[in-house]
């Protein structure tokens, strides 16, 4: 990687929300992409773990159907939003990292939102 390309990657990475937080180690783009994908899978597992409790909490007031509908719409939103965010890097080696980071960030936020539905 040339110095110019490395500087461009650093500038892009600095501009990506939450990328530093994900703290993916790696010396190659492939390693960083794999790490970001793993971080997303972990976030998705956390969301899936809290889902049954959130749905049960919503069922207590008759809102489980509304929550399921909202979750389906949120998934469509997440996928579309992350496609747009990563789309500007179409064809570039950083695109998978940007896409996975977006999925992770939005999934973690949704998990926090679902936790808010749980009784105290």
Automatic annotation (TrEMBL):
Swiss-Prot/TrEMBL keywords: Signal
Pfam families associated with the record: LprI
Annotated ranges, domain Lysozyme inhibitor LprI-like N-terminal: 26-114
Lineage top rank: taxon: Bacteria
Signal peptide: 1-22
PANTHER family referenced in this protein's UniProt entry, alphabetically: PERIPLASMIC PROTEIN, PERIPLASMIC PROTEIN-RELATED
Protein name as catalogued: Lysozyme inhibitor LprI-like N-terminal domain-containing protein
Organism lineage string: Bacteria, Pseudomonadati, Pseudomonadota, Alphaproteobacteria, Rhodobacterales
